[in-house]
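The methods section describes the discrete structure representation at length, but only in general terms. What matters is that the chain and its backbone geometry are given together, residue for residue. For illustration, here is how one protein appears when written out as sequence plus structure tokens:
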Amino acid sequence: MGDGLESPKPSEGRRFPHAMLHEIYQQPAAIRETIRQNVEDCAIFPRSLQAIEPALLAFKKIIIAASGSSRHAGLAGEIMMEDLAGVAVDVEYASEYCYRSTHAGADPIVIVITQSGETADTIAAQREALNRGAETIAVSNVPDSTIAREASVTLHTFAGMEKAIPATKSFTAQLTILYLFSLFLARRRGRMTSEVIRAHLKSLCEIPPAMEKSLGSWDAQGASCARAFQNASAFLFLGRGVHYAIAREGALKLKEISYVQAEGLPAGELRHGPNALVSDKLALVAIATRDASDPDSTLRYRKTASVLEYVKSHGGKTIAIASEGDQEIAAIADRVIFVPQMPELLLPLLEVVPLQLFAYHFAVMNGHDVDNPRNLVKAVLTE
């Protein structure tokens, strides 16, 4: 599949020094196209899932198998499906699925996620799931890939060709598909009316323009944060709930292209050992957004703010991703990048972009090839 995506307004007429930066700027178009191709008059996946209709009525749980960035999308998808549709979801490393899921509960649906559709571990996980009699749903960016051909059904992302090795627009397109699938299940299971689904879809469609409006400022702020923390030798990324998946993805992006140690953790785990690492040599990146209309989101936010205060009291240096207008976090963190207000489960689509830009600028400032990091390939073709 060719690129087929127009760059959003912030990139019109702009020459990009790296494919990775261009692809970061293409994310609004990738999300918009993924929605357009999978939603028809508010009907989600109107034809894509017909082949597994009996399983969709009978399944007891969902297992997600994926690796790398795709697994992080799966971690966010787990919470989306559990919160919106009320289904039980387990997320496995694709490389572990064949070895530790032999006693999985009866009648699962197995979702396998891979940008290329050729990731060896994920293909092996799908083949094992099919051998066990499970129906599989492949989420892939390449329609004629091995995993798409062998799956029971396929849900396609429409991110266009991704030339840089680090996943950017393919990741946010995967989040979009998983959010849509969560809404599909919620409607199918009678947890949402068609009017509520329409409202959720309206909020999802607000993501691309919000992202387009913010990309320029995120780019500048990502560069500023990278300069301020250029000499840091290690990073901890913290998030709670659905944001933990984004903390992991932010850490992976930085690790992949900068070769510094970076780890994503649940924010509440910092004081259970990792706080021993807090020093002037370590930078902490916290996702501290909130949906003020969601009591659970507000509680997570308050707990995350207390972690930032703790780190500050111990001399740690912090970067925070926060919701627009949040002066409390601005007063605590050394640097803050704001994202637009959004419902809790849609915030990850926005949060990850400034983290991608921070990783990009940090790597470039330290002289690394962001499009072709050492030892990495776009698709891992051998187990």
